[in-house]
Amino acid sequence: MFEMWNNVSSRLEQVQQSQTQTQQPHTSSGSIKAQIEIIPCKVCGDKSSGVHYGVITCEGCKGFFRRSQSSVVNYQCPRNKNCVVDRVNRNRCQYCRLQKCLRLGMSRDAVKFGRMSKKQREKVEDEVRFHRAQLRAQSDSAPDSSVFEQQTPSSSDQLHHSYNGGYTYNSDVSAYTPAYYTNTTQVQANSMGYDISADYVDSTTAYDPRPGLDTLNDTGSLMANVVTTDPSQISELLSKTISDAHTRTCLYSLEHIHEMFRKPHDLSRLLYYKNMAHEELWLECAQKLTTIIQQIIEFAKMVPGFMKLSQDDQIVLLKAGSFELAIIRMSRYLDLSQNCVLYGDTMLPQDAFFTSDTAEMKLVTCVFEVSKSIAELKLTETELALYSACVLLSPDRPGLKGIGEISRLSQAVVRALRLELDRNHSMPIKGDVTVCDALLTKIPTLREISMLHMDALGKLKRSAPHLEFPALHKELFSVDS
Predict the structure, then answer these.
(1) Which of 211, 134, 131, 219 is nearest to 178 (CA)?
(2) What pLDDT score was predicted for residue 137?
(3) d(CA 304, CA 242)
(4) Are 420 and 238 in contact (CB under 8 A)?
(5) CB atoms within 10 A of CB 218
(6) First-residue to last-residue Cα distance in the chain
(7) What is the reported pTM?
(8) Which of 303, 328, 299, 297 is nearest to 315 (CA)?
(9) Span 44-55, average pLDDT
């Protein structure tokens, strides 16, 4: 009944928005209202229709907020009061949707746009200019730099994959949850609920990648000048863009990680994990892995060209590569001097994850070994980002359709990776083996470990079918797919 009501409510909102857009009088392109509509709804990311109750929103969120002002409304969150609110699942939790409206400043008493102060008006106009600059940067790309073209995924409504209900997952990084991504390495880590269906690779997630209304970040200003056909310049731009995507989607900055390395070990926490029951340890690790993969999905969506791929291919690449990218990111958390990994806020050795199952022990050992081998190469954040993008954009994944386009993107990323590594690691590791050669030869190993993970997970699920894994984890690592 709850699901049926959500579907009906969502449909009513779509009809309401359609009718409103049809009835609105034609406005000149220079009007304030027309300018505002270029900015997506602040609440759910859908197409906005103006300023409503003090915030730029769509008709759906405008109507929802109006209805929520009734004295009889008493919304309750069925989960942890941190549900993701976006265009796809905004009706899943009325409580979290209302709280987001209030956080953004929606109010019955809010001034209408016509009575905005000069400062408020200029702030909105700055934001309009930012969005216009983004659109220009995306559409004015030169042919040889087409990986930076506007990424326009198909509407998620075209594919009707099952939706998991927008569950969100707790993480140990709740302190790292600013309202906007910034130029620092502290990024939004509120563990947005993801389904790996088409909805999860849509462009309507509720985060704002802007550093502020009055400035463009380095990537934005750089991409605004993409008019070059010089391969080296295109590689530089690709490196900068992918590095920025990596920085924005890492849960911890390197500075924070290294600071945690220096803290004394908490032996009680170490014993806690070593004595954890087998099934509980699996669920604990699945929870942490899911949090990391949510950020990996956001990273993928910011990789130039990824969102231009078909939704089916996006899903294939994410399903196949997410565990491998998680291993690559794990290398940032390894303290080679102590041979320990930063797990949440605790430094744990490899044997803390051992169980009595030999297949699981082999999986843990291999994960640590390959992650350690990557950490030993002392890659910069940009190099790690490019390597992650290279693994993500593997054109030989089974089930891909747009192999030609993915190959073109992959080759561009590999070129950028080689240039970056040649600049920072000019000396070969051994003989004539370069750092780039070493990284590329690890890709088959990453795939083998991913298969070990699926085998171990399948065995566990057969022996303990009652275990309930996070929804995104189940979708990504379905043993039936």
Answers:
(1) 211
(2) 53
(3) 8
(4) no
(5) 14
(6) 29
(7) 0.59
(8) 297
(9) 85
The better pLDDT of the pair 12, 176 is held by 12
**Cβ contact 234:144 at 8 Å:** yes
Looking at residue 156, the DSSP 8-state letter turns out to be: G
Q: Minimal CA–CA distance to 84: which of 459, 471, 421?
A: 471
φ and ψ of 119, to 5 deg: -65, -40
Q: 348 - beta bridge partners?
A: 341
- Read off the tokens for 336: 């080679």
Mean pLDDT across the stretch 109-120? 58
Structure tokens at 321: 């590569």
**Burial profile 372-393: b = 16 or more Cβ within 10 angstroms, e = fewer:** bebbebebeebbbbbbbbbbbb
Burial 159-188 (b: 16+ CB within 10 A, else e): beeebbbbbbbebbbeebeeeebbeebbbb
On whether the CB atoms of residues 197 and 161 are closer than 8 A, the answer is yes
Helices 403-424 and 381-392 pack at an angle, to 10 degrees, of: 160
Task: Provide, for the chain, the percentages of residues in helix, strand and coil under a 3-state DSSP scheme, each rounded to the nearest 5.
Answer: 55, 5, 40
Domains of the chain: 2-116 (3.30.50.10), 156-476 (1.10.565.10)
Q: What are 285's two structure tokens?
A: 């690790």
pLDDT band at 206 (very low <50, low <70, confident <90, very high): very low
Q: What is the pLDDT of residue 190?
A: 31
Q: Where are the beta strands (DSSP E) in 220-372?
A: 334-335, 340-343, 346-349
CA distance 160 to 162: 6
- Average pLDDT of the chain is 75
CA distance 471 to 195: 7
Counting DSSP H helices and E strands in the chain, the numbers are 17, 5
SS3 261: helix
d(CA 434, CA 436): 5
Q: Which SS3 state, helix, strand or coil, does residue 334 take?
A: strand
Q: Span 20-30, mean pLDDT?
A: 41
Better pLDDT: 25 or 355: 355
List the structure tokens of 361: 């022990």
Contact present, 23 and 62 (Cβ < 8 Å): no
Q: Is 79 helix (H, G, I), strand (E, B) or coil?
A: coil
The phi, psi pair for 55, rounded to 5°, reads -135, 145
**CA torsion angle for 88, 90, 91, 97 (degrees, to 10)?**
170
∠ Cα 421 423 426 (to 5°): 80
Strand duo 340-343 + 50-52: pairing: unpaired
Contact 318, 393 (CB under 8 A): no
H-type alpha helices, 24-75: 32-36, 59-68
Tell me the pLDDT tens digit for each residue of 208-251. 333 322 222 333 333 434 445 677 788 888 999 999 999 999 98
